[in-house]
Amino acid sequence: MHSSLRVRNNRMLLVVWICGVAVLLIAAPTPLTIPVLLVALPSGIAAGVLQRVAIAANRAAFVSSVTAFDVRRALTGCRAGNAAIILQWLAFAAILILTVRDPATLPAAFLGVVAFWLARDVTTYPAVVRLEQSVSIAAIE
Q: What is the pLDDT of residue 17?
């Protein structure tokens, strides 16, 4: 199974996203902070739910993944995975549209992207745990 699907690596990534959101909220608040978060957080949660569905639907492909391209192929192997990827790009486009007018809002754009990743990965985390547990159980048997 590819390292991006390991629980330990996902925990470390969640810490990075949490720190990134905290730093951007504290160090660089802008008038667009709330609107950007109103786009990023719900869309990140929705993308996470779609990724959970994709992992459940295509478990064997995720377990057998060796490279990041294999993980991407497994994700796009079902409608939910494709929808998660499309939703990510739509959310990023909306964040860009909100923040492109003024260079001073660049931190809000970064906040939106990192908040999206945090919401998505927190929502997907239980599926990653179940995936790794299924691999561990299969190895024992």
A: 97
